[in-house]
Input
Amino acid sequence: MNRVEALMPNRREDVRVIARLWDELSETLGCETAEKLLCEAISAENAATGRRAARAAFAAEGQTSLEHFIKAFSARKNDGGLAMADAAILGDELTLTVARCDYPTLYHNSELPTALADLLSCGGEKAFARGYDHRLELVEYVPTDNRCTSCRLIYRWNHGALPPAEPADENRLKLKLR
Output
């Protein structure tokens, strides 16, 4: 077991579960449909995680904030797979600089399709931010090396953003699949 795998046992378990779902769904429904369903489910879970973080922000501070978002982002990645170099807030913009990220290595070394590996490694940050607060947008993701093992993420408040058309339903995918 390498350093990346040793640091993230829960993530390895996630890969095993998702790989098993991928195998079953792709065989039954075809690759395109399986990928679409799994990507929707993973994005929905990332957004739900963001909503749970927002509830914690409201409980602690009475509102969501960039300061609390930094804590939520860090807590979400507390399994040793990510090392933050810097977090800077300038007005309505937050820049997170990641010095080391092992998630792309873990997920891309699995047997998952590239779209799922991308979503699991760093593609879920947009849905997490939107789940946290519908006004928070990931406006830029800049890998600082060719393997995406370090990066810069820029989030910005969009004060003109309208709330979602319908309340978020954590059971939406369950209902859709029945």
Q: What stands out?
A: The helical segments are 3-7, 9-29, 31-61, 66-76, 103-108, 114-123, 125-132, 172-177. Residues 104 and 122 are 7 Å apart (CA to CA).
